[in-house]
Write a structure and sequence with these properties.
Layout lengths: L2 H18 L4 H20 L21
Amino acid sequence: MPESSRTRARAAYNATRGQEEDASWSEFVTRAVMNEVYRRERLYNEGEPFPGGTRNLAPGRTLGP
């Protein structure tokens, strides 16, 4: 994830965590990811979970600090 995207996400979280009642950064990230998962399931798989979620993902670059 580009640093500019991480910075923007952190800023949005910090600015709205009280209004959105986020318990943590982890909850914020999980909600964001799951919203995209639900969108893709609806669009490409009739709203059902995709099979294969237990397979390992290809490794990517490590995140910076």
